[in-house]
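Inputs:
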Amino acid sequence: MSPIDAVHWELADRGLPRRYLLRVRGELAAHVEDAISDLIDAGHPITLARSIALERFGDPSILADTFVERYRRASFIARHPLAIAFAGPPLMFIVLGMVHLVLFVMLYHYFSSRWFQITQYIGQALVSLTGASLVALMLRRRLGHRRWPAIATLIFAVVGMTSDLSVRPEPNGNLGLSMYVARCLWRPPYYLFFMRGVSTRTPSGSISFHSWRWHKEYANSSPK
Amino acid sequence: MPPRRTNPDFQNGVPELLILKLLSRQEMYGYQLVRALAESTREALAYGEGSVYPVLHDLEARKLVKSRQEEVAGRVRSYYRVTRAGQKRFEELASSFEKTVGAVRLVLEGGNVSD
């Protein structure tokens, strides 16, 4: 495997985005080609030129570490993990919740009322699953370690259990939309644990909770 | 020949300083920058040449340099140039570095840093 391939796969393993990998690969390949051309022009045979160019290039594993460290350090997420872990889940829930509501307004006339209710529950579960995964992925990709993604998914589980998204017909014939996020903030604590958590009226709560458990297990089983 | 094992950040703060200085003179692509570094330091600094790229990308993410791509002889090259914020950062780094060098020189010459 060439040093450039080694750097590429190391960065891919560490979760850096594909677009960035292609950029790194392109620049490193052009660099080595330029170095080889210069050395050949200076009178070195091609095999020696290649060998010298790769020797000057540096150790691929150290280089990959530097790319990862610098890439993560430069991001907003890496500089503000606490804010992202705590504010990210509710914000993501709101954004995806809006998509959910718009979609279900559009779908309203295609379902019977019973199926509409069931698909709304499934939709909310998907909102939680997608949102929890997106926040956790963002944090993992940018931070490398597992603790913040686990915390973010736990918060998402709480947000999912205590939030509601619904589209329902009103007596006047219009459609009523509602989005409650983190309702426990203005409900007594038992409401969170007994009315919603245990009865699992909202499937998103349990899905987010399992997602958190998965992230937590992953955190415990992975180094750093 | 085994690859050279070097500290990629060859010295804290120094890569940024040197790269910003060289790019403030003219726009350069990575290999050109590495050659310019080697020539202007008379090859005194040992570092893996590839380690210039994470530094460049970091500087770009911090908006201290800007890049543009251009295809030259079948190779896509990224040309980097310093931004106004980069120029300001260079001046701060240079001033800080001068102070550090002055302090180290005083110690090496046996003087007191606070003199």
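DSSP finds ten helices and two strands in chain A. Flag for discussion at group meeting.
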